[in-house]
């Protein structure tokens, strides 16, 4: 979800690798070990949880998490929890990284010291205050000053123990503190509206300086307004602190008026400090990305240059693909993967991925001398095909591998065949038989899955096969190895090895299961390779011995039949696949659908399950469905406004007769469910064009006040993609990312231009300083480089102009940039410095 600004969309995403923790304090008891898990939080909202690692003080997780961040946030937090024998969770420590500090750790493995978790430090949200100072004539003819403090509203307050009943306490601080004045308690909301005014008399003499409103010089920093937010509790031990702000009265200035939003801050309660290594540390790798995307017309020059890359061929009389803007990006990027990800997404969005990949693959094949090394390196071609398979083939993987992978992870059958690692209680022959059965089953589901292979992958494989067969006409097997090196080596084998990275499992498998999957992956990779003397491919003697169990000719024939099918130019009807495939499941909270419309009693926790056939919910996991919604009955999937039920993270699944209202556990999960439900139902021809963003309650729609419950929607639907587009890709966003890469590597573009000039006038061996670039046509490459640099510079000017305009218009203390926003303060400082330098 993009944050909309004037003429701009801002996308935020984060990719996190949770590595391991170490030196966790032992459990206070005879059993020193702990059962630990780690959570990822946007501010205080949990969006991901690792599996529990049992009986360890140095737990290893190795788990990856990626999400599009759908809202603003102040910090990224990681909490380490311990679960005891009574299944109670207690916090050990936390790591909190402020948004403005995320770039410091970008893409680096970093050890963070765990800090203590205090209730008074778990703060989020903001408050809107208005202060006004006026002179009042007293009864005896004197003058005093009256401070009017208006508490208007708060937003995004933390929810404590599942509830938020907030009130504000306002007091005047100085040499002596006034008694706190309290607002009314607002029930069941973390976005309370108060609009209450409190008055304070200031009896000390006041003076105005040229700079600001002031008290006597020595007291200038002591006189301040204090606003604390509290959660009203029915429990005996009192109300819970939600956050507070201290506003020095000097902000009133000569006009005596101040109106601003403030970020709530934690309370310094003088708790004892914890030594650096007392709570242990956590290893994290954080990649935070923020894309600023302009309207499409701003990217037209660069987009057109990139899309031309799909029409270049390495053949006589045509422009070589090495001269294209896309290939140039791959040449200048430090890692080919950097270029491949946005390029593939861009070409997929515009439906030109097949001609582009075919062009760069054909060029690589023509440069390859030995058929045994075809597509073996980490070239731009290999990385682009990897990324295409991962994007276009994710559903294919789930259909093919997920059922058997789930079974392997659940059964925990012993499959260790290394005699050195064998446990005393295990039998080598039994383990070999277990492993062989798993390998056979996975091999069979793969080699019989050709009809499910996505068309875009088949078209690419057809192109690879033709290029390889034309280049190496003597080698009859090259048309197979060119395809198997991708579909087995880079697609199925990695998915078996790390199912969590391919959305086949929610977490990294346990060590025993991970070892089983490693052995299966190695065997499948070798069976699919079609290499000669396969047993010699294994470094380990026990793997070579295990491979002898398989009939080479039988498996080779099955592989070739499969490869022939997926690299054919024919088409299959995907609708003929009737097997229901589980796409997503988990607990959420639902509201009853129509029979009973009375408040909170109707909200129940249920287990939801989505397949390619239907959306169901169950009382608990494993039980029969309480309700079934066929995919063809889903007319739209949209967010539900929070005011409908005073509940966050709600969405609605709209059916012909009614809407099902559901609350997800957090904002990221809500976005994921909306996305996948929209994609699954997008081919439904009865999809709605409008919907009601609020609920139908008390006899009318809350959004448009229409009284008829079947009234047409009042708002255009936002969900939904054209039926022929299966991937939710924003072309402008991908071009913006490519622009950022070109801008980062501008010095290399200049050097490549120099290389083109050198090659065009220098007749002889390629000069060593330019040998890192592939330049087949110096003149054409130079021309494309010139256009590329021009397009990048044009976008740089657009970004610079936007920053200047934003700096000029933005007000510190506004709702978007509350006082206390450190990232905005940093931005203001940077803009001020750049303005100074430009002068």
Could you explain how this protein is built, in words?
This protein has 17 helices and 31 strands. It is globular and about 110 Å long. The protein has 5 domains: 3-116 and 281-289, Immunoglobulin-like, CATH 2.60.40; 126-263, Immunoglobulin-like (Sandwich), CATH 2.60.40.150; 293-564, GTPase Activation - p120GAP, domain 1; 582-713, PH-domain like; 754-838, no CATH class. The two termini are 38 Å apart. The chain is of the alpha+beta class. The protein has a 7-stranded antiparallel sheet with strand order 24-23-22-21-27-26-25. Strands 1, 2, 6, 9 and 20 form a 5-stranded antiparallel sheet that branches. Strands 3, 4, 5, 7 and 8 form a 5-stranded antiparallel sheet that branches.
- On the 0 to 100 scale, the average pLDDT is 84
Shape assignment: globular
The proportion of residues in beta strands is 15-25%
The end-to-end distance, rounded to whole angstroms, is 38 Å
Can you tell me the CATH class of the largest domain? Mainly Alpha
Rg of Cα set: 31 Å
Structural category is: alpha+beta
Q: Superfamily at the CATH H level of the largest domain?
A: GTPase Activation - p120gap, domain 1
Characterize the biggest β-sheet.
7 strands, antiparallel
Q: Please count the helical segments.
A: 17
Tell me which CATH architecture of the largest domain applies here. Orthogonal Bundle
Return the domain count.
5
CATH fold title of the largest domain: GTPase Activation - p120GAP, domain 1
Number of strands: 31
Helix content: 25-40%
- What is the strand arrangement across the widest sheet? 24-23-22-21-27-26-25
Could you name the ranges where pLDDT drops below 50 across 5 or more consecutive residues? 208-218, 570-578, 720-726, 835-839
């Amino acid at each position: 979800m993009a944050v909309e600004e004037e003429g701009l969309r801002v996308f935020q995403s984060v990719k996190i690798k949770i590595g391991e923790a170490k030196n966790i304090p032992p459990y206070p008891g005879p059993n020193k070990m702990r059962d630990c898990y780690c959570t990822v939080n946007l501010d205080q909202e949990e969006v991901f949880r690792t599996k529990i690692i049992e009986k360890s003080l140095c737990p290893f997780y190795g788990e990856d998490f990626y999400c599009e961040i759908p809202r603003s946030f102040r910090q990224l937090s990681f909490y380490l929890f311990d679960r005891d024998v009574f299944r109670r969770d207690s916090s050990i420590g936390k790591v909190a990284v402020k948004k403005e500090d995320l770039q410091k750790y970008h893409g680096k493995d970093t050890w963070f010291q765990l800090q203590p978790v205090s209730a008074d430090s778990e703060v989020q949200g903001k408050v809107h205050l208005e202060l006004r100072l006026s002179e009042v004539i007293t009864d005896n003819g004197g003058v005093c000053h009256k401070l009017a403090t208006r508490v208007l509203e708060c937003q995004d307050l933390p929810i404590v123990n599942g509830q938020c009943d907030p009130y504000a306490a306002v007091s005047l601080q100085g040499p002596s503190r006034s008694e706190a004045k309290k607002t009314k308690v607002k029930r069941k909301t973390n976005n309370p509206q108060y609009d209450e005014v409190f008055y304070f008399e200031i009896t000390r003499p006041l003076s105005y300086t040229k700079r600001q409103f002031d008290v006597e010089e020595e007291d200038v920093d002591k006189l301040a307004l204090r606003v604390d937010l509290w959660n009203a509790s029915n429990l005996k031990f009192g109300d819970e602190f939600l956050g507070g702000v201290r506003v020095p009265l000097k902000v009133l200035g000569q006009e005596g008026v101040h109106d601003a939003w403030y970020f709530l801050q934690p309370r310094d309660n003088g708790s004892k400090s914890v030594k650096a290594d007392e709570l242990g540390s956590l290893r994290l790798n954080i990649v935070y990305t923020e894309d600023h995307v302009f309207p499409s017309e701003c990217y037209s020059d660069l987009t057109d240059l990139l899309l031309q890359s799909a029409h270049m061929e390495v053949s006589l009389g045509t422009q070589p693909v090495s001269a294209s803007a896309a290939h140039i990006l791959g040449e200048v990027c430090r890692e080919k993967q950097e270029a491949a990800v946005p390029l593939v997404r861009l070409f997929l969005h515009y439906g030109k991925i097949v001609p582009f990949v075919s062009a760069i693959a054909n060029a690589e094949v023509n440069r390859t001398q030995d058929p045994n090394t075809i597509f073996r390196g980490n070239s731009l071609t290999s990385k682009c095909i990897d990324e295409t398979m991962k994007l276009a083939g994710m559903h294919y993987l789930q259909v093919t591998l997920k059922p058997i992978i789930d079974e392997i992870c659940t059964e925990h059958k012993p499959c260790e065949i290394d005699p050195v690692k064998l446990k005393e209680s295990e039998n080598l022959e039994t383990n070999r038989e277990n492993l062989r059965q798993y390998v056979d089953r996975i091999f069979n589901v793969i080699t019989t899955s050709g009809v499910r292979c996505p068309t875009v992958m088949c078209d690419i494989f057809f192109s690879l096969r033709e290029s390889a067969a034309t280049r190496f006409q003597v080698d009859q097997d090259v048309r197979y190895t060119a395809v198997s090196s991708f579909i087995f080596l880079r697609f199925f084998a990695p998915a078996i090895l790390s199912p969590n990275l391919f959305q086949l499992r929610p977490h990294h498998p346990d060590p025993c299961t991970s070892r089983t999957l490693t052995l299966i992956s190695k065997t499948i990779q070798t069976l699919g390779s079609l290499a000669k003397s396969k047993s010699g491919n294994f470094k380990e003697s026990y793997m070579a011995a295990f491979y002898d169990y398989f009939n080479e000719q039988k498996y080779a024939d099955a592989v070739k039949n499969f490869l022939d099918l997926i690299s054919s130019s024919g088409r299959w009807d995907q609708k003929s696949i009737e097997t229901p495939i589980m796409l997503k499941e988990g607990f959420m909270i639902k509201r009853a659908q129509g029979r009973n419309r009375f408040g909170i009693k109707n909200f129940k926790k249920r287990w939801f399950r989505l397949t390619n056939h239907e959306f169901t919910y169950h009382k608990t996991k494993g039980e029969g469905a309480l309700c079934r919604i066929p995919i063809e009955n889903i007319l739209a999937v949209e967010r539900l406004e929070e005011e409908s039920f005073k509940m966050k993270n709600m969405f609605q699944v709209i059916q012909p007769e009614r809407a099902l209202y559901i609350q997800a556990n957090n904002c990221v999960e809500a976005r994921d469910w909306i996305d996948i439900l929209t994609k699954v139902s997008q081919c439904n021809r009865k999809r709605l064009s409008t919907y009601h963003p609020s609920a139908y309650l008390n006899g009318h729609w809350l959004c448009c006040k229409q009284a008829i419950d079947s009234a047409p929607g009042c708002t255009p639907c936002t969900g939904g993609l054209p039926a022929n587009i299966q991937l939710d890709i924003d072309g402008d966003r991908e071009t913006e990312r490519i622009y950022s890469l070109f801008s980062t590597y501008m010095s290399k573009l200049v050097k490549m231009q120099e290389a083109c000039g050198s090659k065009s006038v220098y007749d002889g061996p390629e000069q060593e300083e330019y040998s890192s670039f592939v330049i087949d046509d110096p003149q054409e490459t130079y021309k494309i480089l010139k256009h590329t640099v021009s397009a990048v510079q044009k976008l740089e000017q657009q970004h610079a102009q936007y920053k200047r305009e934003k700096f000029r218009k933005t007000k510190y203390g506004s709702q978007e940039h509350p006082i206390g926003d450190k990232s905005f303060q940093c931005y203001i400082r940077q803009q001020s410095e750049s303005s100074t330098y430009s002068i």
